[in-house]
Specification:
Blueprint: E1 3-7, E2 10-12, E3 18-25, E4 33-39, E5 46-51, E6 57-59, E7 67-72, E8 77-82, E9 91-99, E10 104-107, E11 111-115
Parallel strand pairs: 2-11
Antiparallel strand pairs: 1-3, 3-8, 4-5, 4-9, 5-6, 7-8, 9-10, 9-11
Length: 117
């Protein structure tokens, strides 16, 4: 049974920080590309950041310079450190695990992040 269990979401004030965690089980974690996506109400799900099995990271403009994705293969966990949070960062954040051959694409349950004063 594949599971992506997310934690760390919650309510933070603008300018604050939050670290999201996603613990994976049921997969060979180290060979998967891991990603963080988010979806605000009424909007499409969008990529925030990803990290390959080799540790290469990529960010979309929304989080570049403020967000950092990292992984700990020993713990089967991927993190998203979010700093200088803005109200527009409010969304449900989803963890994603992806690989090829065979092609698989798993999603976590999502964790709510609310940035508000």
């Amino acid at each position: 049974q594949v599971q992506l269990v997310e934690s760390g979401g919650g309510l933070v004030q603008p300018g604050g920080s939050l670290r999201l965690s996603c613990a994976a089980s049921g997969i060979i974690f180290r060979i998967y590309t891991m990603g963080w996506y988010r979806q605000a109400p009424g909007k499409q799900r969008e990529l925030v950041a990803l990290i390959t099995s080799g540790g290469i990271t990529n960010y979309t403009d929304s989080g570049k310079g403020r967000f950092t994705i990292s992984r700990d293969n020993a713990k089967n966990t991927v993190y998203l450190q979010m700093n200088s949070l803005k109200p527009e960062d409010t969304a449900v954040y989803y963890c994603n695990a992806r690989r090829l051959r065979p092609t698989v694409n798993y999603w976590g349950q999502g964790t709510q992040v609310i940035v508000s004063s």
